[in-house]
């Protein structure tokens, strides 16, 4: 049977592909390239030295596209310049103001390149109306001031943000209950695409991990885990179009909002695992606002406290979904309800992000379906890896299937 994409799903895939093309080929375009060679906060007037803040200044003042190469190291915002509310990249957060041009920042890997806000201010404040791409780095320990439009790790304006193989962790909004205290990790006010990345252990009044206040957000092959908020969503709050594919939403919590995701707009979730999220309000996994809708396919929404979903009437099953209770309104003949998915703990199962492996005997194994444009699981493993496709973000390969070729290969090598 040919899969028919919804309008949102189609547009989101197009945006995703365009973003990928830009992400991987932008560095080849004609642009100034600045290589950072000092981990200090700034190196102004030091001959031969280029710090990250200096490189951003150079990009801000260049009329053209730019690339910043950020080698391995820990780049800490200096305690000597802790002022917040300054938006010209002189002190506090790193202000990206290359308004009409694209900026690409390339780190050496999330475990090697670390940009640390030192608890002084948010880490990156992006005013660009074009595209800012960040890859291969960790953004941590940012603290946005209360009432300042959120974004403890990253705040964007009206442009596009692409995160690829980035960890955004342990960022927060300073203690407060302002309506603008949103997005502990990422506060998006434009178009945001998150790929192969981890948003973990961030805190905010609204939207602990991610808050999407812009026109759209896409999350692909990523994990949002361990984030906390008070009134909206521990994992992700989104007021507009949302697409989540091959991703894991796990272990997030909210005091009175949704534990995992809270959506206002049109949302689509595909081949994703939403589990172990919690809320004191009883809205634990995924929840739509009265204005929101959700289409879900080939996904696990299970083991989320009291209720995996709220407002099931606003949820459309596109088939091959699994729930351990029956709160999401999954009524397609291919859906599996009231069944324990048998998930292992969130851990490193290969690939750039943590996932929940399927244990032997899981009803998700071989009970799923293929998804056009997304042939791999969250780790990048080819689907299917067995008799059929698995439901959720993780594709389980049979130990026997892996063991037999190993024996055959060994026997051949000894003949």
Describe the structure.
It is built from 3 helices and 34 strands. It has 415 residues and is mainly beta. It has one domain. The protein has an 18-stranded parallel β-sheet that branches. It is globular, with a radius of gyration of 22 Å. The N and C termini lie far apart (46 Å).
Provide key terms for this protein.
34 strands, disordered C terminus, 415 residues, 31% strand, 18-stranded parallel beta sheet, nine-stranded parallel beta sheet, mainly beta, 3 helices
Write the layout of secondary structure elements.
Layout: H1 7-25, E1 32-35, H2 52-60, E2 66-70, E3 73-76, E4 94-96, E5 103-107, E6 113-116, E7 124-126, E8 131-140, E9 143-144, E10 154-156, E11 160-169, E12 172-173, E13 186-188, E14 191-195, E15 198-200, E16 210-212, E17 216-220, E18 223-225, E19 228-229, E20 236-238, E21 241-245, E22 248-250, E23 253-254, E24 261-263, E25 266-270, E26 273-275, E27 278-279, E28 286-288, E29 293-297, E30 300-302, E31 309-310, E32 315-317, E33 343-347, E34 355-358, H3 399-414
Parallel strand pairs: 1-2, 2-5, 3-6, 4-7, 5-8, 6-8, 7-10, 8-11, 9-12, 10-13, 11-14, 11-15, 13-16, 14-17, 15-18, 16-20, 17-21, 18-22, 19-23, 20-24, 21-25, 22-26, 23-27, 24-28, 25-29, 26-30, 28-31, 29-32
Antiparallel strand pairs: 33-34
Radius of gyration: 22 Å
Shape: globular
Contiguous uncertain segments of 5+ residues? 1-5, 21-29, 400-415
Beta-strand proportion: 25-35%
According to DSSP, the number of beta strands is 34
Number of domains: 1
Largest sheet: 18 strands, parallel
**Separation of the first and last Cα atoms:** 46 Å
What's the helix count?
3
Proportion in helices: 10-25%
The assigned structural class equals mainly beta
Question: Could you report the average pLDDT, rounded to the nearest whole number?
Answer: 90
């Amino acid at each position: 049977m040919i899969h028919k994409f919804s309008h949102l799903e189609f547009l989101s895939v197009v945006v995703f592909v365009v973003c990928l093309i830009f992400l991987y080929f932008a560095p080849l375009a004609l642009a100034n390239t600045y290589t950072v060679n000092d981990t200090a906060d700034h190196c102004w007037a030091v001959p031969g030295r280029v710090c990250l803040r200096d490189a951003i200044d150079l990009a801000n003042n260049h009329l053209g596209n730019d690339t910043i190469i950020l080698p391995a190291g820990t780049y800490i915002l200096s305690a000597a310049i802790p002022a917040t509310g300054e938006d010209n990249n002189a002190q506090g957060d790193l202000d990206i103001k290359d308004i009409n041009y694209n900026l690409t920042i390339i780190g050496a890997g999330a475990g090697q390149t670390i940009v640390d806000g030192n608890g002084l201010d948010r880490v990156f404040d992006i005013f660009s109306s074009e595209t800012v791409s960040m890859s291969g780095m960790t953004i941590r320990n940012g603290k946005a001031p209360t009432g300042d439009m959120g974004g403890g790790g990253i705040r964007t304006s009206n442009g596009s943000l692409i995160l690829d193989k980035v960890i955004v962790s342990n960022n927060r909004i300073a203690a407060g209950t302002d309506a603008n205290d949103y997005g502990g990790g990422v506060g998006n006010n434009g178009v945001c695409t998150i790929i192969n990345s981890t948003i973990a252990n961030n805190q905010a009044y609204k939207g602990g991990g991610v808050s999407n206040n812009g026109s759209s957000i896409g999350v692909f092959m990523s994990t949002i885990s361990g984030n906390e908020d008070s009134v909206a969503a521990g994992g992700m709050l989104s007021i507009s179009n949302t697409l989540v594919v091959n991703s894991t939403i796990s272990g997030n919590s909210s005091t009175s909002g949704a534990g995992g995701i809270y959506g206002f707009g049109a949302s689509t979730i595909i081949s994703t695992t939403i589990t172990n999220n919690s809320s004191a309000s009883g809205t634990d996994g995924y929840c739509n606002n009265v204005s929101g809708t959700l289409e879900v396919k080939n996904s696990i929404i299970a083991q989320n406290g009291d209720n995996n979903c709220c407002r099931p009437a606003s949820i459309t099953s596109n088939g091959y979904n699994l729930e351990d209770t029956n709160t999401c309104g999954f009524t397609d003949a291919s859906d599996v309800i009231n069944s324990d998915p048998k998930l292992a703990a969130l851990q490193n199962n290969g690939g750039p992000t943590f996932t929940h492996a399927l244990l032997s005997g899981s009803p998700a194994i071989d009970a799923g379906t293929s998804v056009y444009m997304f042939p791999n699981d969250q780790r990048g493993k080819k689907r299917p890896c067995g008799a059929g496709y698995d439901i959720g973000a993780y594709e389980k390969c049979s130990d026997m299937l892996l063991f037999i070729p190993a024996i055959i290969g060994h026997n051949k090598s000894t003949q």
